[in-house]
Records
---
Amino acid sequence: FVSDAFRRGAQLEQQGQYFRAAEAYLVILGSPPRNQKARVDLSRIIDQGIAEKRSSAAGMETELMLDEAIAEMDAARRLLQRSASFDVESGQASLVESRRSQLVDRRVQALLVEAARAREGGLWSAALANLQRVEALSPGYGQTRERMREVWVDWADANESEGRLRAAAMRLEEATRVPGERSSAISARAAAIRSALGMSDLRNGAC
């Protein structure tokens, strides 16, 4: 196993695939006993492997493939974290974090614009999907959660105006699951609709 992994790492280095070579040496390091040659080899090429991912991310950003660019920087970050656990450090750790932050911020701004457009067009699912992606990329960013709650309420308003009371109550209940100051008022409104449904004849078209 070890000899095969070393051979694979060397081949990848010769091909200029330093990131994958670094991963091969990490596999060896993760298998006891700890192999010092793998540590030396990893230390020798880790900066080249990280630079490879940074270059790849830059190309993807140029093509506006921001999610893919962020994924490249996430991969670089994971490599750095795994390497550090074996006392292998890189001088590019701060560059990776800074670059990832820039990419995330750019993607977040684009997603917020897309979410606003979807909301204006009544495309509630699309608006929420974009806001949820923002929350995943940058938890607690700005007023993202408040916007998510507002979209759920807007969706409920649309359902209620269409006479779809059960759906409206469900949207409001989803809104209460988003942390915020208005949760109690929204919950009370959802309960009122549920109560009205319970007292009405459901065969008259309310659904």
Note: The longest helix spans residues 93-120.
---
Amino acid sequence: IPDTRKLLGANIVPKKADITGAQAWGNMILSWDWGGWIKPQIDLIAGNNVGGNCIRMIGEVYGIATGMYTEAFYLARHRQLADYCASIGVHLYACCSGKGTPAQVTISNDGAVNLMAGYLRMMGEYPNVIGVDVVQESNVVAKPTDANLIEILSKLRAITPLPLTASTGEINLASAGTAPWIYSMAQYFDFIDIHNYTYPVTMQSLDG
């Protein structure tokens, strides 16, 4: 990406029907309503005349381990996504997993790397792929430990030249909370992806 280019985009979101338990992203892959749900979101982001030029798709490679779908099924859907984004000049921010290691999956670091390997190799074929979020919001519950994540990142770098990170869901970088996580882990990432959520506020509290 040229240094002068700004990225403006959004996540592909699952349908309400897909949001059951912790498997929303896997359910979206399984149902894969391309024409009625996924492609229209891309077209809206890229064609809304506000400069939208990037899509982030939260994947779920661990659905392969649980038998939710095969690797071939999973990769075919992501290839359709990558091909379409490339055809309309949209960047793609890839993401291996929304859940990390689900409770129903006991897997080694090498096992996690093997699950991600095919997806990363395929994403490496596309010049419009800007990087990979290895685990969505890695600092929250049910995700790899820091030591495991560091090892996984190291092993993935032997598979792909794509920039790697693990995004973080921070509440407030100025507070105690989870903020120290990104401070201690940033050195292991090629770029930083902070999802800076804020506490709900009322309109009255913003007045004046």
Note: The chain has a mean pLDDT of 84.
---
Amino acid sequence: LKWLEHKRMSPSISRESESTPTTVNVPDSRQQPAWHVIVLGVFATPPIYVAYWGYKTLRDLKRESIEVNGPIDDPRAQAAGIKPAKPAPLPPRNCEVKPDQHLKDSLATFGALSPFLRGLGMLIPLFNVYPLTTLIIGVTKLVPDESSYPRKHPLIATGCVLGAFLALVALARLPGLLWMPSLLGLIPIAVAQHWLNKYWAHVESPD
């Protein structure tokens, strides 16, 4: 009887094992929806969130630079003007498409930067203009479409984004409810995130 029960149960057990879904780890995309930047900026206040956004963006671009151009002490990176330094541990690469030479050179500028110090500098009034400007200029140069406006005119595009951001954030000093438009200060930064998403979409493998 025990042998018969085992024989009856074994097919069902095998079918259950066959129907068990297999877990597949899919790498996370580094793209961030532009509207996330606006919404999170409202809750965290624009000046604070833009510092975090700057840190996160620089961290991802530094890792990408090391992945594409090699470690910072690699001759290829030194030829691109990156000073020798000890690279940080990297996560598994989730990009299959290699950037062209222009994008490689643009990425090289992020290889020797300190994301933490740059992000911290974005919290300091007046001084924050420099790290934010250099970051947005670097993002405009990473746009894959050579005919796009930010790629062709990086300084003008950066000036428009930075000027709009500073103008909206300055409205926070106004009395009464006149300060409320300052909550929209992350809209220009969302534009920069949109440009960056184009780069990640260009190099990341499709799902």
Note: Residues 46-69 form the longest helix (24 residues).
